[in-house]
């Protein structure tokens, strides 16, 4: 009934389609007749003036009863995730802190570290490596600090700690560095021919990346 009242047949559209603002694509109106500029987030909408569905927007009539009219809003998605009181849409990438980056996926979220998780063994020029927070920098950094005398007396040579055969040890593989496509995961392990702690990497893929739209000639 709404379509019959608002839509005229045949369609009468302007010869020249409108010029849309940046980020607003040309779409067919609610009658499927003329091309119009899709309404963006927070803009008013109705049956004819549709929202940008490519951004997941729908015309939200929940505020229309208050006299403010319908506006374009994100469609309610039960597969969103809530972190620290904020709701993220499925597929949205966010950073709870400068040290990690997360993505909302299927009601949960996956995170990858943005700081290197390497291990530094004692060396003659750096007998006591220590990781410290640097003011103004997000990721901690390694510094070399002289050990106390009592620590030196009780310390055992590194060669004694790395006997052969040694007991295998390793951390869990980290999350994939890429949220789509090929990335890499890291871990710290001594499973090598020298039985030494080292950072190891391997290729990984969470999911394939969406196909890019075909390029049109200028």
TrEMBL record:
- Gene Ontology cellular component annotations, sorted alphabetically: extracellular matrix; extracellular space; nucleus
Q: Please cite one Gene Ontology biological process associated with this protein.
A: signal transduction
Q: Which SUPFAM superfamilies match?
A: FnI-like domain, Growth factor receptor domain, TSP-1 type 1 repeat
Question: Which residues are in the VWFC domain?
Answer: 79-145
Q: Does the keyword Ribonucleoprotein apply?
A: no
Which UniProt keywords are given for this protein, alphabetically ordered?
Cell adhesion, Disulfide bond, Secreted, Signal
Kindly list the places in or outside the cell where this protein is found, as annotated in its UniProt entry. Answer: Secreted
Recorded GO terms, molecular function? heparin binding; integrin binding
Q: Which family does it belong to?
A: Belongs to the CCN family.
Recorded protein name is CCN family member 5
State the organism of origin.
Machaerirhynchus nigripectus
The lineage, from the top, is: Eukaryota, Metazoa, Chordata, Craniata, Vertebrata
Name the gene: Wisp2
């Amino acid at each position: 009934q709404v379509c019959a009242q608002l839509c005229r047949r045949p369609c009468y559209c302007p010869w020249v389609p409108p010029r849309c603002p940046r980020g607003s694509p040309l779409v067919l109106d609610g009658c499927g007749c003329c091309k119009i500029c899709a309404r963006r987030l927070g803009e008013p909408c109705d049956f004819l003036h549709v929202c940008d569905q490519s951004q997941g927007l729908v015309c939200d009539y929940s505020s229309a009863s208050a006299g403010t009219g319908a506006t374009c809003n994100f469609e309610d998605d039960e597969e969103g995730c809530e972190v620290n009181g904020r709701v993220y849409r499925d597929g949205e990438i966010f950073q709870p802190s400068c040290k990690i980056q997360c993505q909302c996926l299927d009601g949960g979220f996956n995170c990858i570290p943005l700081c290197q998780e390497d291990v530094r063994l004692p060396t003659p020029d750096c007998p006591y490596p220590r990781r410290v927070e640097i003011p103004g920098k997000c990721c901690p950094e390694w510094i070399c600090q002289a050990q106390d005398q009592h620590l030196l007396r009780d310390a055992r040579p590194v060669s004694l700690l790395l006997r052969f055969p040694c007991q295998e040890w390793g951390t869990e593989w980290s999350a994939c560095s890429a949220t789509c496509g090929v990335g890499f995961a890291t871990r710290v392990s001594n499973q090598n021919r020298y039985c030494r702690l080292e950072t190891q990497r391997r290729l990984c893929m969470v999911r394939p990346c969406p196909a890019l739209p075909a390029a049109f000639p200028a």
